Amino acid sequence: MSRYRKIEVRMWGDQKFRAFDDHTKLLWCYLLSGPETTQVPGVLTIGEAGLAEALGWELKPFRNRFATVSKAGLVLSDWSSRMVFLPNAVRYNPPANGNIVKGWADTIKELPESDLTPVIIARISAVLAEIDEESIPQTTYSKLFQNRLGNRLGNRFETVSKPTRIQDQDQEQEQDNTYVEFADEPDRVRRKSRKTKTAASEAVETVIAAYRAYHPRSRPGDREHRLVSARLAEGHDADRLIAAIHGCHITPHNQGHNDRGMKYLTLELIMRDSSHVERFAETWEHRNGNGHSLKGPEEEVIARASRLGVLLDTEQAACAIRLCPDISQIEKLCRQQYESGLVDGSALVATLERQYEISA
After folding, report:
1. Is the overall model pTM greater than 0.85, yes or no?
2. Where are the alpha helices (DSSP H) in the chain?
């Protein structure tokens, strides 16, 4: 077992964590880094009595504090098998190489038989699939993980498609509205009324349409729709998600100005989680002042310029249109600018001013 565990510094600013009392914060830190943690991120093999004893607490106060963490959607447990699982841990502890993935699979095969095991497998498989899709060069961690598991776990784990809640019977009523936050499982959307679902569907399509303005040939699938739904369910409105899309497309690193020369503009990346949405949306707001929604020709110009690698904000787009109402001409000039190594919107505006002999 490794002597070290990684804990994100931003945990201390997390709203859920800050709401815990000091004892519950200690419990959470122990779950992240205690000696009962395994090679698999987020998996502990210990019962509730053992955890209470390790922390020097009586069983009753331990149960109350553990229930607080569970209600926050941060932990699952199967006390009959003495297993605990933190669903989000694997996202913050991605594998460095394929050998680590193999080690995870080998450890899972040695875990006690439990209804929690398929939840662990499903969660790790989903995160590894995301890593495979976004990595350059592309990895095959998900396939490696499944192949390593093989059939040793039995047929009952082969059809796992989504996580299930594992809770003690006496906690079921108390925790009826809790859930575990999986980026690809927007449970809150499913619990809303049919009317709300219709409104949510419209919001999803609005966001998808905004993304396709940049990538007309793209065909976002079920996964992208689920991610957008999940972010909406977390409280972001459609305008905020659209701002994130704009923000990603004006970020030089994502536009390909990085050491690999690769563009990172997928909708999956933008909507991966709340932190990605907020980071890109704040980039857009910083570039455009109040971050208002784009409408009309300005949006079209920014989208076309972005596809060609030229970064425009709303003020620059409006100025470009004022100088040259023909958007196709602006697009042609953007291509020339990019080929010349000029990717900033101010350079485009300056060129238009020279060509049309209009002073600022």
Report:
1. no
2. 15-19, 22-33, 48-55, 59-71, 89-92, 98-109, 117-134, 141-149, 187-191, 194-214, 222-233, 238-249, 267-270, 274-288, 297-307, 314-323, 327-339, 345-356
